[in-house]
Amino acid sequence: MSRVNSILFRCDGAEDIGLGHIVRCLALAEELQVGYDCRITFAVHRGKPGIDMIKDKGYPVITVINNLDFFNQEEFLKNAVQESGCNVVIMDFRENISLDFLHSLRKQGIILVDIDDPQEKRLAADLAFYPPVPQVERMDWSGFQGQLMVGWEWVILRKEFITMANQQQIPKERLHLLVTMGGSDPAGFTLTVIEALDLLEVDFDTTVVLGAAFSWEKELKSLLVRTKRKFRILRSVENMAGVMAQADLAIASFGMTAYELACMGVPALYMCLTDDHAESCQAFVDAGIAVNLGRDHSIKKIANQISLLLWDGKYRDGMKANGKKVIDGYGAQRIWAEINKILIT
């Protein structure tokens, strides 16, 4: 196969950082392999759950075998580039890496693509893609010679969300709530929301989705014994788009899930792990597609916010329409089009 179609994804996904980077890269990888006949390789520094997800999709994964105490980002990426024979590197990881090293890759004719990255390594990219979050405007772009692409249109989603979002949904007699806190839920947000929902007297059904790296099973089991409300628990869901399609409202951890829910037209309240997440979530609030709970995770506040949205169907309808309007899910195709412009020049 031609080097033109050889793509290396450098990303990580673990219990402490979540699996959003892995999920996003897998969605882009599928589009590039199936739609454009690209050869795909992944390079993952850490995170067995993420590595397992990639292997389950049948992609080769280059990992670190030696003692992690001596891990070197530059050497790892250099070896991965050589082993994969790639000429495009797509970076979706948050650790920094030497700009001099990245520039040396570009001198070899390798195209560097950076996804939603606050780190300095973005300055060495040929292409840098971001959703319209406020942080991008504040970043120092001195020395950047690539192309900066900012907007909802660059959001990468799996194909099933695009397909399901375009299907007509059957109205339900009872409201259905979805609780989903990503692949790992490192802060145990699931437990907090279940406690908040148990305070409400409104009649509704609830589905709780647990990710592949969920580590609060013991605490969850103990909590569910005490709750008066019944919760439907799903684990490692294959068809997340189908689950979201049944929801009238979602309570979620801010991350990739936020973009998926918006595309599906599901109104949502977001809990945020970091100040950076809380600031990014403001873009969703400004677009009229979400409520930002920020980092204030008091059970009573969450319960009150959920109650307000449950009673305000008109507001939920507006959020639903706005979400479908701003995110269509075709970011992968658009990103490839920009990469291909460079490849053919």
General description of the model:
With 345 residues, the chain is an alpha/beta fold. It folds into 2 domains: 3-156 and 329-343, Rossmann fold (3-Layer(aba) Sandwich), CATH 3.40.50.11190; 164-326, Glycogen Phosphorylase B (Rossmann fold), CATH 3.40.50. The chain has helices at residues 20-36, 48-56, 73-84, 99-107, 135-138, 159-165, 189-197, 217-226, 240-245, 256-264, 275-286, 299-311, 313-326, 331-343, and strands at residues 6-11, 39-44, 61-63, 88-92, 111-115, 127-130, 147-150, 175-180, 204-210, 232-235, 249-253, 268-271, 290-294. Strands 3-2-1-4-5-6-7 form a 7-stranded parallel sheet, with helices on both faces. Helix 7 packs parallel to helix 8 (217-226) and helix 10 crosses helix 13 (313-326). It starts with 5 loop residues before the first strand and ends with a helix.
Radius of gyration: 20 Å
What are the segments in which pLDDT stays under 50 over at least 5 consecutive residues? none
Report the major sheet.
Answer: 7 strands, parallel
Number of helices: 14
CATH topology of the largest domain: Rossmann fold
Distance between the termini: 19 Å
Question: What attributes characterize this protein structure?
Answer:
345 residues; alpha/beta; Rossmann fold; 2 domains; 14 helices; 13 strands
Walk me through the topology.
Blueprint: E1 6-11, H1 20-36, E2 39-44, H2 48-56, E3 61-63, H3 73-84, E4 88-92, H4 99-107, E5 111-115, E6 127-130, H5 135-138, E7 147-150, H6 159-165, E8 175-180, H7 189-197, E9 204-210, H8 217-226, E10 232-235, H9 240-245, E11 249-253, H10 256-264, E12 268-271, H11 275-286, E13 290-294, H12 299-311, H13 313-326, H14 331-343
Parallel strand pairs: 1-2, 1-4, 2-3, 4-5, 5-6, 6-7, 8-9, 8-11, 9-10, 11-12, 12-13
Helix pairs in contact: 7-8, 7-12, 10-13
